[in-house]
Specification:
The chain is of the alpha/beta class. The protein contains 28 helices and 29 strands. Helix 2 (32-43) runs parallel beside helix 16 (455-476), helix 21 (659-669) packs across helix 27 and helix 22 (688-702) crosses helix 23 (721-735). The two termini are 45 Å apart. Bound molecules: ligand NA7. Residues 159, 166-167, 180, 198-204, 223-224, 345, 366, 394-396, 510, 515 line the site of ligand NA7.
């Protein structure tokens, strides 16, 4: 429907007390999301009523009028994009617009699409009940008619329910009290006043410099120091503007598929590849850019996912704070130490740190002197009493769930209350819907990328998705849509998997519910990124509304149940990237072609991390010298030695090809890893690789001291065909009188020549290692007559009296079942064996170090197992990540 026609259409309104207003859709909230919903729903031909507590449009920008309130995503990106004409009709005056300008924008939008006539301002929903008989939501309001609607959509925002002050005595205070989230429209004059600001989140950090300029004295009460970056506000930077103007549509599209909703590329260089000087240069550039998304994503690839890579940034910011704040003690109090950079929402500031050099500003560190009470005249801490005329609470919000759950009761099917269902944390499907609450939708609900993204982009995606679904439902005769329990449980699992990917879980923040006493803890926003989230939502539709039950009066019920994402989130990304690359089938390339291809392919992966020393040399194989690569830990030796066999189907790979994994094993286990370049087929077919494995292990054991290793038993490890060689070596060593092997680490091992196990059928294609590729490997390596030889199929050998084993298998791997069978066979034969069945992983996951981050916990366990085999304490040392409390996603169960 053209916009002009939309503007002319009116919803059915009987807006007087005592009658019930009928509408297809009721929307709560007339902010960024509510306004677009109204426009889009009208355009799709739905009658709509919007209920808004405020007196006008704007949502959070209506309420947050405190001094200095501004956007912290560049406003060029924080705009509607659904209508290119609207996009052209409005130009922002600043890089970060002020609250009044943003509010003018919403008024402009409301006028342009004639939105106000369907918005009931000054009205709150008091209760929302699902009526199973009519298949409609019944809403009670505090002002005017109740509402009956088919669909109920919460566009209530993530940060709209202010948090109570939680400090005793507020009522006793005789001076003025203001909340940044409910600021008076007439403004506040602080001239000559003694002022206290409690809270140093974005609202505090934006307002403190301006309040300090006016006030006689300002006392800032800080509980947790926050990272703040200078905004360097002004006109939109030329580089951004030029990029945008060159192709607006492409710019917007790039934002939609990016990770944070702002068009920045994925940074590829990892921190340890950069020198100190290079890292500093990148940091200085980001500091000067004054752009949160830039500094949060563009420094180095590991900054948001790795504790050590992240800690480098914290240190650089501490230097900046110390350079500005003259008093070293104040600078130290202002420097965050308790959370990784970005795990708590960082702030953009204008003169924030400089403000603490003013003689009229005092910083009170509540970690050292908590507030005891607020009295008639001011604030009393453990150490002092501060008399003030005004208290400003910049204490934040009951984020993400507050406005949905706490503001009014919502009752779904069978009288279930949303507050009860969410008592242990929010549970949703896609962050948009909740099982048991048919036809209820949330825009930027918990479980969506929302606050971890450019809200503008996420809101438009959610609105488009929901409205398009409603239109499609109507077209097909369905009137009810409801998430299934299975789909919702799957989403909770996926959310929990995603939250292991980033560092958000390592901070106590409003992202995790930690800022509200008694609130269930867990990472609430979706941490998997905007683009991946969008593709998942699209996949749900593409797979026949997967995970939704659809019903209607004259159609058969439809329910295509299931979990939309079963892969680990980063594995899904990797497979998506590989699919886009349109790679050739490896088995079609011939042996040499496959080798060249893999060598090229490996060049694109992140360089492995530094270890104490890397050396190379030659050892004696079964039929001549073989190259090896040795990784030595930085700690003083002698260390136990792990003999490592690379993967590659006995056809490709070499002593260097699993380099990042070898480095990782070396670092995490604190042992020497010697990676052996054994001979390959077709030049050297079975049993060359197996015999080389055995000979190399014997040679290394005999030369342990020369290699700087601990004399005595060695350990063996391998991945895929390399794991086959490792365990065959153990069998041969037992049968041929040595060497002594203290333990074996088998990662996704090939253990048998049969292809009829279920995992071969389940994972035949689509997970990188295919069934066809395994056929090819076997054909090249070993003639059918030889394949049952235990040196090729160790599962067929004698499994008794072998060294203790750690066997890791991956869910989406053709080799999964033979690996599990091998572990079970070892256990049955009396061999101590630990099994790790990695959920959501593929054959290559566990060796894709610094790419598949969700494989870290498996890599830690593997290293611990090796240490255990060597008689060392299983834990090497507590890493920063281990030492920091982890907020567990309660919703994930
Ligand atoms: P935030 O970011 O939640 O900040 C609230 C601040 O108030 C934060 O420093 C809190 O410390 C502090 N706070 C909260 N309760 C108390 C009590 N009881 N005593 C002392 N200090 C307290 O809210 P904002 O409004 O600043 O920003 C919200 C978002 O809006 C922001 O992230 C941007 O996305 C825009 P704590 O850190 O909890 O120790």
């Amino acid at each position: 429907m053209p916009d002009a026609a939309v503007a002319a259409r009116s919803s059915e309104k009987t807006n007087s007390a005592g009658t019930t207003q009928q509408a297809d859709v009721a929307v709560v909230g007339a902010g960024f999301a509510g306004l677009y919903l109204l426009h889009k729903l009208r355009k799709a031909g739905f009658s709509v009523v919007v209920i808004e507590e405020a007196g006008d449009v704007g949502g959070t920008w209506y309420w947050n009028r405190y001094p200095g309130a501004r956007c912290d995503i560049q406003t060029i990106d924080y705009s509607y994009t659904f209508d290119p004409e609207l996009d052209r009709a409005w130009t922002w005056s600043e890089k970060y617009a002020t609250q009044p300008e943003i509010l003018r924008y919403f008024n402009f939008v409301a006028d342009r699409y004639d939105l106000r006539r369907d918005i009931r301002f000054g009205t709150k929903v008091k209760a929302a009940n699902w009526d199973d008989t009519s298949g409609r939501w019944q809403l009670l309001t505090d002002n005017g008619a109740s509402i009956s609607c088919r669909y109920y959509i919460m566009a209530t925002g993530c940060l709209s329910a202010p948090k109570p002050p939680e400090i005793e005595g507020v009522k006793d205070f005789k001076g003025a009290v203001y909340f940044t989230g409910r600021w008076p429209h007439h403004g506040v004059d602080f001239t000559g006043k003694r002022v206290a600001v409690i809270g140093t989140g974005s609202s505090g950090i934006q307002s403190i410099p301006l309040i300090a300029e006016q006030a006689a004295h300002l006392a800032v009460f800080q509980r947790t120091p926050n990272f703040a970056l200078p905004a360097h506000n002004g006109p939109t930077p030329d580089d951004r503007k030029t990029y945008f103007e060159a192709d607006r549509a492409a710019y917007r599209e790039q934002a939609r598929w990016s990770l944070a909703g702002v068009p920045y590329p994925q940074e590829m260089a990892v921190s340890w590849q950069l020198s100190d000087a290079e890292r500093r240069e990148r940091f200085e550039k980001a500091w000067a850019a004054g752009d949160l998304v830039h500094i949060l994503t563009q420094l180095w690839a590991d900054q948001a996912v790795d504790f050590d890579g992240n800690a480098l940034i914290g240190k650089l910011i501490h230097e900046k704070i110390s350079a500005v704040v003259k008093d070293p003690e104040t600078a130290a109090i202002l420097s965050p130490h308790d959370h990784p950079f970005g795990a708590k929402r960082p702030c953009l500031d204008t003169n924030y740190y400089k403000t603490y050099n003013r003689p009229n500003v005092t910083l009170v560190n509540l970690r050292q002197e908590p507030i005891k009470a607020i009295t008639a005249s001011g604030i009393v801490t453990d150490k002092r009493s501060v008399d003030v005329d005004v208290i400003v609470f910049a204490t934040g919000f009951d984020a993400m769930t507050g406005a949905i759950m706490a503001v009014h009761p919502i009752t779904g099917r069978a009288g279930k209350s949303l507050s009860n269902v969410w008592a242990n944390g929010p549970q949703t499907y896609l962050g948009l819907t909740v099982a048991g609450f048919p036809n209820l939708f949330m825009i930027t609900g918990p479980g969506s990328p929302s606050v971890l993204s450019n809200m503008a982009v996420s809101i438009e995606q959610h609105v488009d998705w929901v409205v398009d679904r409603l239109a499609a439902l109507r077209e097909a005769g369905f009137t009810t849509m409801e998430a299934t329990e299975a789909a919702q449980a799957g989403w909770s699992q996926h959310m929990a998997d995603c939250s292991t990917l980033t560092l958000h879980r390592l901070a106590n923040t409003w992202y995790t519910g930690a800022n509200v006493p008694g609130k269930a803890q867990g990472v609430m926003p979706y941490t998997g990124g905007v683009g991946p989230y969008r593709s998942i939502c699209n996949e749900v539709v593409g797979r026949g509304m997967l995970g939704f039950r659809l019903s209607g009066p004259n159609v058969a019920e439809q329910c295509n149940d299931g979990e939309v994402v079963r892969l680990q989130p980063d594995v899904r990304l990797v497979l998506g990237m590989l699919a886009e690359m349109n790679l050739p089938q490896i088995e079609s390339l011939g042996a040499q072609g496959a080798r060249d291809f893999i060598t090229e392919f490996n060049k694109g992966r992140p360089a492995g991390r530094p270890v104490g020393e890397v050396g190379s040399g030659a050892l004696q194989g079964a039929d001549g010298p073989l190259p090896y690569r040795l990784y030595r830990p930085a700690t003083p030796g002698p260390h136990p030695i792990v003999v490592y066999f690379h993967g590659g189907g006995w056809v490709f790979g070499d002593e260097l090809s699993d380099d990042p994994f070898c480095r990782d094993l070396c670092r995490r286990s604190g042992m020497i890893v010697v990676s052996v370049g054994y001979r390959h087929a077709p030049e050297h077919r079975f049993p060359a690789a197996a015999e080389d494995g055995y000979a190399a292990t014997r040679w290394i054991a005999e030369h342990a001291a020369e290699l700087g290793g601990r004399p005595g038993p060695v350990l063996v490890a391998g991945w895929s065909a390399g794991a086959n060689i490792a365990t065959v070596t153990c069998q041969l060593a037992r049968d041929r009188g040595g060497p002594q092997i203290a333990g074996q680490l088998l990662v996704c091992p090939v253990t048998d020549c049969r292809f009829d196990r279920q995992s071969y059928a389940d994972n035949a294609v689509g997970y990188f290692l295919t069934r066809a590729l395994m056929f090819w490997f076997w054909d090249i390596y070993c003639s059918p007559a030889d394949r049952t030889d235990p040196r090729a199929s160790p599962l067929r050998g004698n499994l008794a009296n072998l060294p203790p084993a750690f066997v890791a298998t991956c869910e989406f791997d053709p080799l999964r079942d033979e690996g599990i069978e091998y572990a079970e066979g070892l256990a049955t034969a009396g061999v101590p064996v630990e099994q790790l069945q990695a959920r959501g992983h593929i054959h290559s996951s566990l060796v894709m170090v610094d790419v598949v981050i969700t494989g870290v916990s498996a890599r830690v366990k593997m290293a611990e197992a090796l240490r255990g085999f060597a008689g060392l304490p299983r834990k090497l040392e507590a890493s920063g990540e281990d030492a920091t409390p982890i907020a567990v996603n309660a919703a994930a169960g």
